[in-house]
Amino acid sequence: MILIIVPIVIILLPLLVTIYIQNKLDYWKRRDIPYVKPLPLVGNLKDLFSSKISFGELFQRLYEDEHVKSSPAGGIYLLHQPALILRDADLIKSVLIKNFDKFQNRYEAADAVHDAMGSLTLPLSKYSIWRGCRKKMSEMFTTGKIKLRMYPLMLDVVKELECFLSKKLQSEKGKGAIIEVKEMFSLFTTDLTSILHYGVDVKGLKQGHSILRQQTLDLFNINLIRLFDFFMIFFLPHLTLWVRAKVFSKSYMEFMRNFTSKICKERSHHSTSLKSQGDLFDVLLKFQAEYQEDPLHYSQHKDFIASQVAIFLLAGFETSSSVLGFILYELAKQPDIQQKLRQELKEGFGEKTELSYEELQALPYLQMVLCEGLRMYPAAAFINRECTAVYGFQLNEDIFVPHGMPVYVSILGLHRDPKYWPEPDHFNPERFSSMANINPMIYQPFGTGPHACIGSRLGLLQVKLALAHTLRLYYVQTCSRTVKNIKFDPKSFMLQAKGGIYLKFFRDE
Description:
This protein is of the alpha+beta class. It has 21 helices and 9 strands. It has helices at about 1-25, 25-30, 45-50, 55-65, 90-100, 115-120, 125-135, 145-170, 180-200, 205, 210-220, 225-235, 240-245, 250-270, 280-290, 305-335, 335-350, 355-360, 365-375, 410-415, 455-470, and strands at about 75-80, 80-85, 175-180, 380-385, 395, 400, 405-410, 475, 500-505. Strands 1-2-7-4 form a 4-stranded mixed sheet. A 3-stranded antiparallel sheet has the order 3-9-8. The N and C termini lie far apart (about 90 Å).
C-alpha cells in the first residue's frame, strides 16, 4: 500500500502546490482589479531577489507600472501574497487617516517570542503596544521641548560640524577639500541623536569616529543572513517566528543592551541633569515606573528600553544624514540655487555665528530647498498598513480589502509622478513657494496620519541647522569623484546613494 501511495504523493504534491500558487496569483484577475503581472513563486519581487533595485525603487516601479497607472489602486503580489498599492489621494487619506481604526498596524513584524528587542520597537510594535509607546514618547517632540531643551544642545553640536569642516580645509591649504558628505553628516546626526536622546556626548565629529557610528556601520554591513531576515520581516512577517528572523544583528543587540544598562545604572545613582530631563531615557524610565506593579506589562521587559534606544539611533541619524547628502549634491549641480540660498543665509546670520530657533525657522528659501530635497529623496520611500478590521474593509465600490492584507503607498512614486510634479527629476525649490498648493496626501516625506514619523519635526530642524551652518561659510562643487546621476543602493532598506556622494568644499575668501 505504501509503495502505491508514495509515488502518488510525489506526483500530486507539486501539482497541488502549483494549483494553490496559481490560485493566489489570480486573486486580482478574478476580482477584475488592475494588477501588476506577477511571476510564479516571486510575484512582483524578482528585482529584489537579484539585488537590482532598492526597496523604495521597487514600490516606485509598481506604482508606475503600465497596468495600474490609470487606476486609483492596483493589485500587486509579495511572492504569492496579494496586496494593494494606492495611487489616489482620497484612497490614501482613507487608509492612513480617515479609517485608521481599520488599518492600525504596519504590515511588517518581528518575532515577538525570540526577538523582543525588534518587536518592541515603536515602528514594528503592534497596536496594543504601539499606542502606549507612541503616546508616551510623543512627549519628547512637542514644540516647546524641541525649542527649549533640544535646540541649545543642537547648536553646540553644529559648531563641531563647522570645526570638522575647518580642519578638513586647513589640511588642503586653500585648494578645497573633497569630502564624502553622507559620512560627515552621519557623524553629525549620530552626535545629535546621542546627546539629545541619551544624554551622552560620543564626540564623533571631534574624533572623526564614534562608538555609535561604528555600530551603525557594522549593522548596515549587509550579508545574506541579514538580507534574508529583512525579507522575512517585511514580506513574510507571519513566518518570522518559525525562521527566527532578527531585526538587529547579534552584535548590535549586545552593544545596545550594555550601552542601555550602563546609562540606566548611572541615572539610578545620580539625579537626572537638566540637559537630560525629558530625553528618551528619562521618558522611558518614568514609563516603566508607572507600570512597575505590573510585571507582565511590556514596558517591564528587560529589552524594552534597549529596543527604543536601538531604533531611535537608526531613525535619528540615517534618514537625516542621507537627505543632507542628497540636498548638497543637488545644490552642487545647480550653483545658482546654491548661491540664492547662501545669500539668504548670509543676510539671516549677519554678523552672528548662530540663529535663534525662530530665526532659523523663518528662512523661506531654506524651507523651500529642504522641501524639494525631501520630495526627490523622501525619508520614507514607501509605507504600508495592514487591514486589521476583523471582517475586512470596503475601500471603494470596487475594492474590498480582507483582514490581514497589506496596503502600500509609494511615497517615492508619488513624489516623482509627472502628473503632480512637472519635470519631477529636476531639483526646483520654487515648487514650494506656496505650501497651500501642495496636497498633503501627495507630498508626505515622513508619512502621514497616526503612524507618521514621530520625530519628523526634529528631523527637519537638524537638516535645516546643518545646511545653514555649512553653507553660511562654505560652498560646494562637483568634482572628479562626484557621480553624474544618483543610483540608490539596492542593499539598503532606506534611500542611500550607491558608492557615496563626494563633493568639493571651499571656504569663502
